[in-house]
UniProtKB/TrEMBL annotation:
One of its GO terms (molecular function) is sarcosine oxidase activity. Its main location: cytoplasm. SUPFAM superfamilies: FAD-linked reductases, C-terminal domain (SSF54373), FAD/NAD(P)-binding domain (SSF51905). PANTHER family: FAD-DEPENDENT OXIDOREDUCTASE DOMAIN-CONTAINING PROTEIN 1, SARCOSINE DEHYDROGENASE-RELATED. This is N-methylglutamate dehydrogenase subunit A. NCBIfam families: soxB. It is found in: Cytoplasm. Residues 33-380 form the FAD dependent oxidoreductase domain.
């Protein structure tokens, strides 16, 4: 079933009886060439690129719940490639390029909207840091430029420019950044993978790995043993728990991150805006809700819900930045489990177990990475070599001391 304007009109005129299911609901086969554990954005994108780019057949995605039930359907939908470090910038720019063509490639409306992101600065030192970041972005063609306070007043007049503690002096804008509909991304990749023969198995939790003589032979699941030549794990917030079943202890802690949405308002916020003096970021959904978030809850947890002190902290940041937020009513809040790595950057690598591969440590920045992460993980699974843009994301960087610490806060996962 393809999507087109013609099809939409035809279905509208015939009572919408012709739409089929987006993917098949399958029983697991006894064996696959490659099993992907985790039906989130990264797992589904990996399966899609394995089938479409690397022409791998006999691929399955095993998901313990339903496709898209994890962080892919819980994030604040921001996509951007405004990174500083050489290990990160080319990777996120690769992802941005994939975003730019994603809907055409998948023939699916994921509502990718390049509506800009502006990172505000509040001091001369912060302006200089953003200038440096902007220059790094230009090295990969990511774009970006500094906005004066005057220009910013024209774009976002509702900001509290003259706040005595955190005066807003300007911002770094990336015009190509923006938002995408998060669950639409999962559905688009799932449909694309299914159409290329990938088996998507829901309600199938991986409960263990069968490993013999240092080689993985398959996975134990709630639906029995499934054999595989290679297994790729992409379970985000559950990374430590799942990899512990293979006897591995990861440089990752799991924390909760919350997100919030207000009642629907008239169009107010032009793109994504981030507060430079506190942790707060906000955009406006197409339905009109202000979508915002801030810091993680700061204690280790596998619960998909957060605590009230963080709600207060996030709203405080929002009120300092744009006091008019106090007039809007909060509609909903929710939480997801973040796989926070020791340097704030991800891992896409082989493990010491033959045939077992790992993708995780996305902290709270993994949504924007979904296309590149899937592509790079598929590259690694298919060719056994890292993709050019993901060579920094190895396990051994912690042993070698070559960490990719974008924030420069050291080995403290809750601060990244
Ligand atoms: C509130 C919030 C806001 C965020 N905002 C942003 C943002 O604005 N921009 C951005 O770039 N990133 C953001 N993120 C981060 C981003 O959502 C994640 O980094 C990314 O989605 C993680 O990858 P994933 O999609 O594969 O994860 P998930 O969707 O969590 O996928 C992992 C899947 O693995 C499954 N699983 C777990 N254990 C097993 C098992 N044993 N067997 C089988 N399946 C299993 C889970 O059920 C889940 O479906 C945010 C996250 C949250 C929670």
């Amino acid at each position: 079933m393809g999507f087109s304007g013609f099809r939409v009109i035809k279905e509208a005129l015939t009572g919408h009886r012709g739409w089929g299911e987006l993917w098949r609901n399958l029983e697991p086969k006894p064996e696959y060439d490659i099993i992907i554990v985790g039906g989130g954005g990264h797992g589904l994108a990996t399966a899609y690129y394995l089938a479409s780019v690397f022409k791998t057949s006999r691929v399955a995605v095993l998901e313990k719940g339903w496709l898209g039930s994890g962080n892919i359907g819980r994030n604040t939908t921001i996509i951007r490639s405004n990174y500083l470090l050489p290990g990160n910038q080319p990777f996120y720019e690769f992802s941005m390029k994939l975003w730019e063509n994603l809907e055409q490639e998948l023939n699916f409306n994921a509502m990718v909207s390049q509506r800009t992101i502006i990172n505000l600065f509040h001091s001369d030192g912060q302006r200089d840091a953003y200038r440096r970041r902007g220059n790094a972005m230009h090295l990969t063609g990511a774009g970006g430029r500094l906005l004066s306070q005057e220009e910013l007043r024209g774009i976002a007049p509702f900001l509290n420019f003259d706040n005595a503690r955190f005066p807003i002096k300007g911002g770094l804008i990336q015009e190509r950044a923006g938002t995408a509909r998060h669950d639409g991304v999962a559905w688009g990749y799932a449909r694309g993978a299914d159409r290329r023969g990938v088996d998507l198995i829901q309600n199938c939790e991986v409960t263990g790995f069968r490993i013999e003589a240092g080689k993985v032979l398959g996975v134990e699941t709630t639906r029995g043993f499934i054999g595989a030549k290679k297994v790729g794990v992409a379970v985000a917030g559950s990374s430590s728990r799942v990899m512990a079943k293979a006897g591995m202890r990861l440089p990752i802690e799991s924390h909760v991150l919350q997100a919030f949405v207000s009642e629907g308002l008239k169009p107010t916020i032009p793109g994504v805006i981030t507060f430079g003096a506190g942790h707060f970021y906000v955009s406006q959904s197409d339905k009109g809700g202000l979508v915002f978030g801030g810091d993680i809850d700061g204690y280790n947890s596998y619960a998909q819900r957060g605590n009230l002190p963080v709600v207060e902290d996030v709203i405080e940041g929002g009120m300092a930045l744009m006091p008019m937020l106090g007039r809007a009513r909060l509609l909903r809040s929710w939480g997801g489990i973040m796989d926070m790595s020791m340097d704030g950057s991800p891992i896409i690598d082989r493990t010491h177990i033959d045939g077992l591969y790992f993708n995780g440590g996305w902290c709270y920045g993994g949504f924007k990475a979904t296309p590149a992460s899937g592509y790079a993980f598929a590259h690694l699974l298919a060719t056994d070599t890292p993709h050019d843009t993901a060579t920094a994301y190895r396990f051994d960087r912690f042993a070698r001391g070559h960490v990719v610490d974008e924030k420069g806060v050291g080995a403290q996962p809750n601060l990244h």
